[in-house]
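Me: I hope this is not a bother. Any chance you could explain this protein sequence and its structure tokens? It all follows right here:
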Amino acid sequence: MPKLFLLRHLKSQWNLENRFTGWTDVPLSKEGIESAKNVSEKISGAGIDKVYTSPLIRNKESVFLILKNLNKENLPIIINKALNERNYGKLQGLNKDEVKKQYGNEQVKAWRRSWDQAPLEGESLKDVFERVIPFFQEYIENDLRSGKNILVVSSHNSLRAIVKYMEDISDEEIINLEIPYAGLIIYDLDKDLKIIKKKTV
């Protein structure tokens, strides 16, 4: 039975600086780079057949470091902007604590975690879902149905969209889902891609 691995990228420089990143192309932090070996050990021996990621450098760097540590640099890698992080619009580059002081914790949480609230000139999770899931269904599900074990290395909200889809999480409950930096979710799936087992690492 196929396995789906969802891995949030290693910590970026702006994650370290507590800034909204979104579509800004920010590299990994030193801390993120140094964590690659430990993260790789979580999926060592998993028999991954193919990797999907986005064009954002923090995602691509995470893939490169992890596959290097696993000695699997020849695995096929599909890079597509459908898997990009949420566009945070006017918030991109701003310090999260400063934004909370200006707009309040509840409003900032709604922008970051709710289903359909978007920051000014940015995307809601619903917007992200509507670009991620058609791509997921067309390409990643096709690979899973053929029995391949797939690793998706991406950003927080693109992964939250996939988890919402996989687990049929309601629009109201999705606000409670968070995946830490380098957090890993592993799904064992049946032939119909229903979840047999879920493991969070």
